[in-house]
Every structure is written in structure tokens, then in C-alpha cells.
Design a protein that fits this description.
Bromodomain-like; two-stranded antiparallel ribbon; mainly alpha; 2 strands; 164 residues; elongated
């Protein structure tokens, strides 16, 4: 089986990442009016990070050692993003009496706290993250984002293992 070139696979992943972010902002946030919670924003950052890594890999088009470095970075980034998707899925699975309290709006968060404090709060999540606002085929949005991260990691693994 002949795989597409290393560069084309990375470019496809970068485009897929950009498409996910455009869908999140244009459709879910602006059209449906769904406000992203702290963990949703964190997951978006990791989707963007995977896309940036893959775009850099596509434009740089390094040799095999460089390819493995970029692939390893994309796998690690997708793994971290998957962790935050899992954390949100865990919050969504909690009984109502165990859901943490809701936090302050994100805009106010960055206006009122230092960047490190705001980022720390984003990474923890809050009660807003436990609310299921949208589902498709019985899966909530963080489940679909986790599937995207698993896909990014799987493609990254293929990129890591392939011969130049």
C-alpha cells in the first residue's frame, strides 16, 4: 500500500484541525449560541496546537529524524488534548450532587486574574463543563473531540513509524 507523502498527510491534518476550529466557532458558538466552557477552550487550544505542529511539519518537510520529532509532538499534543476531553466526559458523568460549582465567565477570568491563574482555572474545569449542550449519535461534544484527538494520534503514529 502506498501512503500519501509525509507532507500531504501533515497538510491534511492541519486542514482538519482548522476545519474543527472553524466549525466550533462558526457553527456551534455563533450559529447555535453554545458558549464554550473552560475545558472546551482548553480542548480548542490543543486542536489548534496539533494543527500548528502538522502545518509546520508540512512546510518544513524535514528528513526522517525531523519527521519523527514532529510526529512525536503531534502524538503528545493529541494525547494531552484527549486527557482534557476525558476530564470533561468524566465531569459530565457525575451525579448532579457531585458536580463542582460553576465558575466565572472566561472573559472576566482573563480580565481579573493573572495569566497563570486564569490558565490554571481553565485546566481544572468547573460545573459548566458538566453540562451536555449538544449530542450526535448519543455522543456529547467532548466525546467527538476525543475521537478527533485519537484520530490525530493514530495518524501521528503512522507518520512516526513510516519509512522516509
Amino acid at each position: 500500500m502506498v501512503l500519501p507523502s509525509y507532507r500531504m498527510v501533515n497538510l491534511a491534518q492541519a486542514v482538519a484541525s482548522a476545519a474543527l476550529i472553524v466549525i466550533a466557532i462558526v457553527y456551534f458558538q455563533n450559529y447555535l449560541g453554545l458558549e464554550p466552557c473552560y475545558l472546551c477552550i482548553t480542548q480548542r487550544v490543543f486542536v489548534i496546537a496539533v494543527g500548528v505542529i502538522c502545518a509546520l511539519a508540512a512546510f518544513h518537510n524535514p528528513g526522517q529524524k525531523g519527521q519523527r520529532c514532529y510526529a512525536g509532538l503531534s502524538i503528545a499534543t493529541a494525547g494531552l488534548g484527549s486527557y482534557f476531553s476525558g476530564k470533561q466526559l468524566w465531569l459530565q458523568s457525575l451525579p448532579e450532587d457531585q458536580v463542582p460549582a460553576c465558575g466565572i465567565p472566561v472573559d472576566y477570568l482573563f480580565d481579573s486574574f493573572s495569566a497563570s491563574e486564569a490558565i490554571s482555572m481553565l485546566l481544572r474545569g468547573d460545573g459548566n463543563c458538566a453540562e451536555v449542550q449538544w449530542q450526535l449519535l448519543g455522543l456529547s461534544m467532548p466525546a467527538w473531540v476525543m475521537l478527533a484527538f485519537v484520530g490525530f494520534a493514530a495518524v501521528g503514529l503512522v507518520q512516526f513509524l513510516r519509512k522516509a
